[in-house]
Specification:
Pfam families: SPOR. InterPro entries: Cell_div_SPOR-domain (IPR052521), SPOR-like_dom (IPR007730), SPOR-like_sf (IPR036680). It comes from Vibrio olivae. This is SPOR domain-containing protein. With 189 residues, the protein is α+β, with helices and mostly antiparallel strands. The protein has a domain of 69 residues: 2-Layer Sandwich (Alpha-Beta Plaits). It has four helices and four strands; from the N terminus they run H-H-E-H-E-E-H-E. A four-stranded antiparallel beta sheet has the order 2-3-1-4, with helices on one face. The longest helix is centred in the first third of the chain and has 25 residues. It is flat.
Length: 189
């Protein structure tokens, strides 16, 4: 004998199945069908028989090559010329010119022209990146440099030393860290 729960479960399943199958047809009502008006495309367009078409004949190509190879004759040099072929071939080869190599001392034009502020060195690179983004939003030219496991926060480079000296006090108010003014070395920043 089936339990009350099984009877209820079977009854519920039957009711749901009837609802799913029968109710949509009853509630849907009269269906309207839409049909698009299509015009058929003719396979071959009809051409009127009385129309005359001009037939163009290909023009002859006047830029054709001659059927046989072209030969050219060169006149022998006249004897009236001041130099003979023997004289031309007997000219002395020129001696190579001496080249003076001057050693130019390597000058670093930008050696003392730029400055940076080394603000701080942080162990956590994420904190350094957050600080860089904040300083860049405030208008500072901020960068990071990885060195010996630390991430250094650098402001600059700038050619004006006095401008960076003024920025040190502003940066101290913002970050709480007093930076150092250093010379910028572009080959080893």
């Amino acid at each position: 004998m089936a339990s009350k729960f099984q009877n209820r479960l079977v009854g519920t399943i039957v009711l749901v199945a009837i609802g799913v199958i029968v109710l949509p047809d009853i509630l849907d009502g009269q269906k309207t069908h839409y049909q698009e008006d299509l015009d058929s495309i003719p396979i071959k367009p009809e051409i009127a028989q009385n129309e005359n078409f001009d037939v163009l004949e290909p023009e002859e190509d006047t830029n054709e090559l001659p059927p046989s190879p072209v030969s050219a004759t060169v006149k022998a040099p006249s004897t009236e010329s001041s130099s003979t072929p023997e004289q031309v071939t007997q000219k002395k080869p020129q001696e190579p010119l001496e080249v003076e190599v001057k050693e130019v001392p390597e000058r670093n034009e930008y050696k003392d022209s730029a400055w940076i502020i080394q603000l701080m060195a942080l162990k956590n690179a994420d904190n350094a990146q957050t600080l860089i983004e904040d300083l860049q939003k405030r208008g500072y030219q901020a960068h990071t440099k990885l060195e010996n496991g630390y991430t250094r926060v650098i402001i600059g480079p700038d050619v004006s030393k006095t401008k960076l000296e003024r920025q040190i006090s502003e940066l101290e108010k913002i970050t709480g860290s007093k930076g150092r003014l250093l010379k910028f070395k572009p080959l080893n920043p």
